[in-house]
Write a structure and sequence with these properties.
The structure holds 2 protein chains of 2 kinds. By secondary structure, chain A is mainly alpha-helical. In chain A, α3 runs parallel beside α6 and α3 crosses α11. Chain A is globular. The N and C termini of chain A lie far apart (61 Å). In chain A, 36% of the residues are buried. The model of chain A has no long low-confidence stretch (mean pLDDT 89). Helix content of chain B is 34%, strand content 22%. In chain B, the strands form 2 sheets. Chain B has a 6-stranded mixed β-sheet, with helices on both faces. In chain B, α6 crosses α8. The longest helix of chain B is centred in the last third of the chain and has 14 residues. Chain B is globular and about 50 Å long. The N terminus of chain B is likely disordered. Classes of the chains: A mainly alpha, B alpha/beta. Chains A and B meet through α7 and α8 of A and α4, α5 and α8 of B.
Chain lengths: 298, 304
């Protein structure tokens, strides 16, 4: 009994010593890690801050009404705008979302509410892979599938390709949002003798509304900012064209073209257009936040 | 109270004659219950009293069997309580009674449940239509969060495409009165269901289930998420509704089973944790003079 107490006491003191040394090590480790994380966070935020400042400073100077209302001036002469590019972007992105978002929504509903494990797993995997594919690959895909077969470069080819990019994004965000809707709500509706599609339509989708809007808007922002796929599909156009079966201009494409031409005037317009793109994306994100906040809470 | 009872008898005139409903008559039922299946004294479903006959019902979740050969008569217009320790399959059993069990992925059923002379597991039976006849109230109150109180009540009618009797306004008032919630919400029908207290939400769910005019109501531990006062109100409600609908209630709470039910079924997980029916009988009998030793052990708190 006595020896036991002694050995216990001994062990206790050695434990104490060990504890304090471990404790010091841990504290240093903790501080180091916290410092590293903070630094990384600052770097990320700093980079974004620098980018925004740069675009704003350069863009504001060239921002003008004619930018939106006028066609390009003859190369080398001052003035002019890129009305054709803004209209082209709106048409292409609009058409892309018109099919990409509904298709993605349906695919997401399938994944969340109807899937069989095997096909569902396959579709989910495919969507994840698609989300990670570099956009230039989508451009080549659109080029081979649409441009070479259906009458050459066109706004439609671009809209198709951008839709393919938005589809998996919308599908996955939709699935994740719908999975957050409590299973009990689905059961409650099913137990009332409501058919499954009606449960999805009238109970699940309205409950998940905010998340669905978020997914669609983020996909829209992504589509609006793409450049590489457009090079291969709509090519660009220096003239006014609202016919989507022919090559169209787009803001991102025009920025790209103007940036590599050696004219200061065009560079300034490219900066201004970049600022507009930035604002559009910012606006979309703000809308998403507002939509998420005004959503009925559960 | 009176209004509710009046409404109750007037909505279901057909059941008044064949089914003895007064409390005295109820307790006069079979005094001795030799086996789990002998309930011949109680009116069966052939007189339209919405009883259910469960015949050799087994259920699985994927490869795992959860119920084995349950044979049990649920007499019409009574309250049947199902008690038993956790994992004995009582929730599974109740979910088999409106074919909600098969909603779970990989869940399967074998056996029969006869409602109004028809096996609800017959291939010709549409489970969606069946669920309008056998309603369900869940453990946690689950009003639809995007809908107002009013819309919650008529959700089953609107979304199910079932035409209710009378106008929507009448159905809402009648259903809320039957669920003893009308007086508390009559001035805020347009507000969200989530703004109510837990007990009110559960009564809203009961109103929602009653609005489609089911013949039977399944309640899966309807009070386990509620405080004692709210529980008491739900129990009062169950006793009032007994005259209009057949009620099967799963409960963890033996006192609750004793308070609200006419009959009690005791279940236990047997070998391989497969749920089995041990004993069923008039509630008073089960609680004062159980035939099976295991029932007695459970009721006296020796396990579970």
């Amino acid at each position: 009994m006595a020896t036991q107490t002694i050995s216990l006491g001994k062990r206790a003191s050695s434990i104490e010593r060990e504890l304090s040394s471990i404790d010091r090590r841990r504290r240093i480790m903790d501080l180091t890690m916290r410092g590293l994380c903070s630094l990384a966070a600052l770097l990320g935020a700093g980079a974004l801050f620098l980018l925004v400042i740069h675009v704003v400073v350069n863009g504001v100077a060239a921002l003008s009404i004619p930018l939106f209302t006028e066609m390009p001036a003859p190369i080398g002469t001052p003035g002019g705008g890129m009305a054709h590019a803004f209209v082209g972007s709106i048409i292409i992105v609009g058409l892309a979302c018109l099919w990409g978002i509904p298709a993605g929504l349906l695919a997401g509903i399938y994944l969340a509410d109807y899937q069989t494990p095997r096909l569902g797993g396959f579709v989910r995997f495919t969507a994840d892979v698609l989300t990670g594919i570099p956009s230039i690959v989508f451009g080549i895909f659109g080029y081979i599938l649409v441009v070479t077969r259906f009458g050459g470069f066109s706004g439609l080819a671009a809209a198709f390709t951008l839709g393919v990019i938005t589809l998996p994004i919308v599908a996955r965000t939709t699935e994740e949002t719908l999975r957050l809707v409590p299973h009990e709500l689905r059961e409650a509706a099913l137990a009332l003798g409501v058919r499954r599609w009606r449960v999805v339509l009238s109970i699940v989708l309205p409950t998940a509304r905010a998340g669905l809007i978020t997914g669609a808007m983020l996909a829209l922002a992504r589509a609006a900012g793409e450049t590489a796929p457009l090079i291969f599909t709509t090519l660009g156009n220096n003239f006014w064209n609202v016919d989507p079966t022919r090559p169209m201009a787009a803001v991102t494409l025009t920025i790209f073209q103007y940036a590599i031409w050696p004219y200061k005037n065009l560079h300034e317009q490219a900066w201004a257009a970049s600022l507009i793109l930035l604002l559009v994306v910012l606006l979309i994100n703000l809308t998403v936040r507002l939509a998420a906040r005004s959503a009925p809470s559960r | 109270m009176n209004a509710v009872n009046h409404l109750a008898t007037s909505t279901l005139p057909g059941d008044a004659a064949p089914t003895p409903n007064s409390p005295n008559q109820r307790l006069e039922g079979p005094v001795a219950m030799p086996t789990a299946t002998s309930s011949s004294v109680v009116p069966e479903s052939d007189d339209g009293s919405a009883g259910m006959e469960i015949r050799k019902l087994s259920a699985w979740y994927g490869p795992r069997q959860a119920l084995r050969d349950i044979t049990l008569d649920v007499p019409g217009h009574q309250v049947m309580a199902i008690i038993g320790p956790s994992g004995c399959g009582k929730s599974t059993l109740i979910r088999c009674l409106n074919r909600m069990h098969e909603v779970t992925h990989g869940a399967t059923v074998r056996g029969e449940v006869i409602l109004d002379g028809r096996n609800m597991y017959d291939p010709s039976v549409d489970p969606v239509a069946l669920r309008r006849i056998v309603g369900m109230v869940f453990q946690r109150p689950n009003p639809f969060p995007t809908m107002s109180i009013y819309d919650n009540v008529v959700a089953g009618l609107r979304l199910g495409g079932k035409v209710g009797r009378g106008s929507m306004d009448e159905i809402v008032e009648r259903s809320l009165r039957r669920a003893a919630l009308w007086d508390e919400v009559r001035d805020k029908l347009k507000e969200g269901g989530a703004s109510l207290s837990g007990g009110q939400q559960q009564r809203l769910c009961i109103a929602r289930a009653l609005a489609v005019e089911p013949e039977a109501l399944l309640m899966d531990e309807p009070c386990s998420a509620l405080d004692p006062i709210a529980t008491l109100r739900i129990e009062e409600l169950i006793r009032m509704l007994r005259d209009e609908v057949t009620i099967v209630i799963v409960t963890h709470n033996m006192q609750q089973a004793a308070r609200v039910s006419d009959r009690t079924a005791f279940m236990l997980a047997g070998e391989e944790r497969i749920g089995e029916l041990i004993e069923v009988g008039v509630t008073k009998e089960i609680f004062t003079n159980p035939h099976d030793e295991r029932t007695e052990d459970y009721i006296t708190g020796r396990f579970g």
